[in-house]
Amino acid sequence: MQIRIKRPWECKESEVTEPTLYCNRRQFIKTGSLALLGSSLLASGMSMAEQNIITTKTAPLPGIKKTTYKLDDKLTTYSDATTYNNFYEFGTDKKSPALNATAFKTAPWRVSISGECAKTGRYNLEDILKPHSLEERIYRFRCVEAWSMVVPWVGFSLADLLKRFEPNSKAKYVEFITLHDPEQMPGQRRKVLDWPYTEGLRIDEAMHPLSMLVVGMYGNELPNQNGAPLRLIIPWKYGFKSIKSIVGIRFSETMPTSSWMKAGPSEYGFYANVNPEVDHPRWTQKRERRLGGFFKQDTLKFNGYAEEVASLYTGMNLKKFF
Fold it and tell me: How many domains are contained in the chain?
């Protein structure tokens, strides 16, 4: 007999909010918050184009499974989560991605699979998504600059995808690569980073149940500025590990050097686990501010997912391997 142990983030089916109530709640919040937001945007001198970005949502995604990933944290508003972003391919200012990614073309989209696996090749996004059921997971998201948010991401297990390509015994790491297209991505016309953007995980990190490939948020398609059409979410790591607009996945025997490791090896390590005990050289990581809030709060070890992921790093000096 198989005994299933309930995970800390899971909830009972009876605890899940009915879709009609949830949608009405969001509409109520949207209506009230947009009234307040509108006056504050006008006061700040924000243009009508910028306001339209905030109030316009992408298309809804059908057939999303009810979430079993539950947090008591208050959700970040859609407007905050989609207009305050790090996506240097579209600019280094926090609002630049929302303004500069509006015409970004995400179809057709292909993903290259290479390296230490049996099934290499280039796959259409539709073929990658086809076998997977979409589910919503509410995750905390923490950026290295000491801001954070709580978002209902829509996607599927990264492990389920990687297993399809049958990685071999030499596959110790997984590298991810972002699209390189300076014509569409104006930020890539500047040498801010060594383009294309790359990131990596150990294979056991990539196969962890919390690791997620994302195609949407708040029940809708992923906005361009948030990494459409395919991005990664690793909720116990800082945001720069959650690479956006993925066009390449490579299985490797050796540890890949990610973009931020190249740019600042003394500031950005391979692991990037959320750790309040390790300060960035130019600021502390002990506190964070949620988008939409005013007061800061204590940063949680592994972003609050220590019970689930700490065993991945048993015996490691997490101040050395940051």
Answer: 1
Which residues in the chain come in under a pLDDT of 70? Answer: 1-46, 48-55
Give 261's strand partners. Answer: none
Cα Rg of the chain (Å, integer):
19
- The residue range of the domain holding 184 is 13-313
Query: How far apart are alpha carbons 142 and 131 in whole angstroms?
Result: 30
Q: How far, in Å, CA of 304 to CA of 117, rounded?
A: 33
Q: Is 118 left (phi over 0), alpha (psi -120 to 50) or beta?
A: alpha
Q: In this structure, what token pair is assigned to residue 34?
A: 């947009």
Q: Per the domain annotation, does 319 fall within a domain?
A: no
Task: Give start and end residues of each alpha helix (H) in the chain.
Answer: 19-44, 48-55, 78-83, 96-100, 125-129, 158-164, 203-206, 259-263, 306-309
Q: Is 4 within the bounds of a domain?
A: no
- Pairing label, strands 110-115, 246-252: parallel
Residue 24: predicted pLDDT: 43
Residue 242 · residue 205 · CB < 8 Å:
no
**pTM summary value:** 0.86
Residue with tokens 């500069």: 100
Under DSSP, the state recorded for 108 is S
CATH of the domain at 130: 3.90.420.10
Alpha carbon distance 104, 184 (integer Å) = 6
Closest CA to 212 of 223, 201, 224, 197: 201
Residue 29 lies in a domain: yes
* DSSP structure class, residue 76: P
Nearest to 295 by CA among 74, 147, 84: 147
Angle, CA 90 vertex, CA 152 and CA 178 arms, to 5°: 70
Write the pLDDT tens digit of every residue in 198-215.
Answer: 999 999 999 999 999 999
Per-residue pLDDT, 4? 52
Angstrom distance (rounded) from CA 46 to CA 52: 10
